[in-house]
Write a structure and sequence with these properties.
Length: 433
């Protein structure tokens, strides 16, 4: 073996997506079943549109979903946890900006018993006072630790400076939010958004007709409909579509409560919704800039200059817009140098064609990432739900891969010129003395 020669690389083509069998329960809940042969495991995801974007008060969505498992109509939290442990099942509760998910993993032979437990707390959570109070105290303790990290504080500063205090994308919790939250607010969120008319169910693993029949018997009735109709949820999701005016070019620097030897930087801008070749070109441009370990920002600022251990850029998708964000941490004395190097790398992309060899490497790397995300495995529902959450059609992925393969250096130059002007970026720094 000659270790001085790099292995051959290929652009990985994605020509088909894993087959997901569509279906419906008796009450109209849509189901999507991905059958994985030769496994006795079953993963079931209950997805509800809404999330942080539609909440009336801070923490309402996250606490309403997080505390679902803390007691139901007939079972206390201890009983729920004991039964799930007895059957070897796990249950995770997640809240995102535009949707929330209840994920259950269990063996197929115990599917009916486990789903009976899930039905109890999913349809009729009790939100008991003791569990509620404990969750508030735990939340405050967690927030206290997060507020000691410069990276977290820089992220908060970035999104609040770009979108304002009231926008859901900058809905970071404060201590007073925990004191203002009530059980009634959680019950209202559950009544509005956790119900059959706002639910999708994803079944992954060794599913069969018996599993689907069990789901229909337990969740196919009309007893847990939402107060908010589907069009109301969609209307709430369309609130707060734009960032603040005048954030472009701002340089905002704030110290922490206690002096720090490092500062965190968040640099970026809000972008419009893009599709087709324009979106593919921007994704590849972002990957070249800072989207993987061998990116230009990493090569220059980490490897050559030694200003940081890591730096990255990403395109954060929502259903209304996208946010291009660059983030890193560095010693206080290097902050200005890092900002200048970021601007320099962006200007290079805006004024010079990307070498063909570099572009081909990034396209191959990106195609491999996409194929990994669309493998037929237990993680596939995560990909489906992320797409639905930002209003994207999963089938778009096939055309997106084709567009990425077709991207040329001129397309990267055009995308960088249109969407990556350093003068339009917001520069936020948190830390120092």
């Amino acid at each position: 073996m000659n270790r001085t020669l790099s292995p051959d690389t290929l652009f990985t083509k994605l020509e088909t997506l894993p087959h997901v069998e569509p279906g419906k329960l008796s009450n109209g809940i849509t189901t999507a079943t991905l059958n994985l042969p030769d496994t006795e495991l079953l993963r079931t995801d209950f997805m509800f549109m809404g999330g942080v974007w539609v909440q009336d008060t801070p923490l309402q969505a996250s606490m309403a979903v997080r505390l679902l498992k803390e007691g139901g109509k007939t079972m206390k939290a201890a009983v729920i946890n004991e039964k799930l442990d007895f059957y070897g099942a796990t249950c995770s509760l997640s809240v995102f900006k535009t949707y929330s998910v209840v994920t259950v993993m269990c063996l197929k032979r115990y599917y009916g018993e486990v789903m009976c437990v899930v039905r109890d707390f999913l349809m009729s959570p009790s939100y008991e006072a003791d569990s509620f109070s404990l969750a508030l105290e735990q939340g405050k303790a967690s927030l206290m630790m997060k507020m000691e990290r410069v990276k977290y504080e820089a992220e908060v500063l970035f999104y609040k400076s770009m979108f304002g205090e009231e926008h859901p994308i900058s809905a970071y919790e404060k201590f007073e939010d925990y004191d203002a939250l009530t059980v009634e607010a959680l019950l209202k969120y559950h009544a509005d958004f956790i119900g059959s008319s706002n639910c999708r169910i994803f079944i992954t693993g060794g599913a069969d007709d018996t599993c689907v029949k069990t789901l229909d018997e337990l969740f196919g009735g009309d007893s847990w409909d939402c107060d908010c109709e589907k069009n109301e949820v969609e209307t709430k999701l369309l609130r707060f579509p734009k960032p603040l005016d005048g954030y472009n070019g701002k340089d905002i620097r704030q110290p922490m409560q206690m002096p720090t030897v490092q500062s965190a930087l968040f640099v970026g801008k809000c972008l419009p919704m893009l599709n087709g070749k324009d979106w593919a070109a921007l994704l590849v441009a972002n990957m070249i800039l800072g989207g993987y370990f061998g990116s230009r920002l990493m090569t220059n600022i980490r490897e050559r200059k030694g200003y940081t251990y890591g730096i990255s850029s990403s395109c954060v998708q929502t259903h209304l817009f996208n946010v291009l964000a660059i983030q890193t941490e560095t010693a206080n004395q290097y902050v200005d140098k890092v900002v200048q190097e970021i601007k320099g790398e962006i200007n290079v992309m805006r004024n010079q064609l990307v070498p063909t060899e570099e572009l081909e490497l990034v396209k191959k790397y990106y195609s491999g990432n996409i194929c990994r995300a669309y493998e037929a495995n237990f993680a596939y529902p995560n990909t489906l739900m992320r797409k639905i959450g930002v209003g994207r059609d999963v089938a778009e992925t096939l055309s997106a891969v084709r567009h990425i393969q077709e991207v040329q250096p001129e397309d990267i130059l055009k995308a960088a010129s249109l969407y990556m002007s350093p003068d339009d970026f917001l520069y936020c720094v948190k830390g120092g003395s």
